Predict the structure.
Amino acid sequence: MTAVDVELQLSVENLLARYVHALDDDRLEEWPDFFVEQGRYRITTAENFEGDLPLPIIYADSRAMLRDRVSALRHANIYEAQRYRHGVSSVLVERIDARAARSTANFQVVRIMHTGESVLFASGRYFDRIRLGGNGLLYEEKTVVLDSRAIDTLLAIPL
Amino acid sequence: MTAVDVELQLSVENLLARYVHALDDDRLEEWPDFFVEQGRYRITTAENFEGDLPLPIIYADSRAMLRDRVSALRHANIYEAQRYRHGVSSVLVERIDARAARSTANFQVVRIMHTGESVLFASGRYFDRIRLGGNGLLYEEKTVVLDSRAIDTLLAIPL
Amino acid sequence: MTAVDVELQLSVENLLARYVHALDDDRLEEWPDFFVEQGRYRITTAENFEGDLPLPIIYADSRAMLRDRVSALRHANIYEAQRYRHGVSSVLVERIDARAARSTANFQVVRIMHTGESVLFASGRYFDRIRLGGNGLLYEEKTVVLDSRAIDTLLAIPL
């Protein structure tokens, strides 16, 4: 049988679940706390990612930058009434060492407009590096690779 | 590492999986048996849920009421040929005590019309209270919170 | 509590995750290696499956046939630029004996066109028979049951 590290697998899935519920519940102020202090976050497209182009759509390399982004979103999107619903699946986890792991997962996000209409907003992969131990799991690095290059230039929420 | 209760987590995910397969397979007669005798089931919208408005779209507080609902659906929808496909993900489980747990999960449902066309039918969250022990897990309470208020007034199947 | 076989459950979910990531990453050459040498693969529709009609859309009963199919796809689709993103959920696993298990899972596949547009491409169920032991889990049989009969006659990738 494939040796799956049960504790690690379910801990990483739990981290992903808490992460997307925070986003979907619009608890954006909690978002930076899923990262280590110098955590890196970027959103890019599959095209750029595979071509290894250094052009992320969004890039941050500290909690402070993530907090700034939340502030900006709160001011910009004051009248918005969309909702988002993430579906995360097929989570593959690989231990790096006693203190770190890598994971890959698929996601799909539905956007529900204030009119009630629902559209498939985004799909892609999460490539994450996670710090283990201490007070729970935290993202050292989270790379969101979007399948489509036709994305909304104003991303209303983090992904 | 986050302490995930492995047995509880997978048992709750298994309950959710059996629940949605019963619905998607149109085995509606089995649906009430996922609940305790006085189990509560309701479907509401996020708007109502967050405003704490007492206006569920569907409400039942016993297996008998759920059975009545199945009977009604069987008579009303005799000519229907839709299919439904649930996607459930990001399941967060919290133990209340030795005999009960709570869970939150995301869902998306695709409806496949008899013409072959597929549409995103509904998305939202399940907020569940589950009785542990005895003969397997059963729902004491299942609240379906739809993201969109633009729902079909005639819900063809339970969610 | 429902007795879930933790190791088996997570090993089967891991197999499914590796399987769909290989497909979504366009690593089609790896696809036959998820099967035993005489593994059976078929794609059918729910209508045909339930009517027990012997008319699969695609049928193969060996790795060699799967390899042929990959070659054909590589030649036919040389100019394609679609991407696919699977979402797999609600995995139910049942042990047959020490060397085999069955699983049922729901899937949804999004197709991302080279224009950037995303559409819900397919949904359905995987009915799998899995060989345990030896060098990891392998499919003895994988049946893909599509919800819709309105499918693309030229399936660009395996499902």
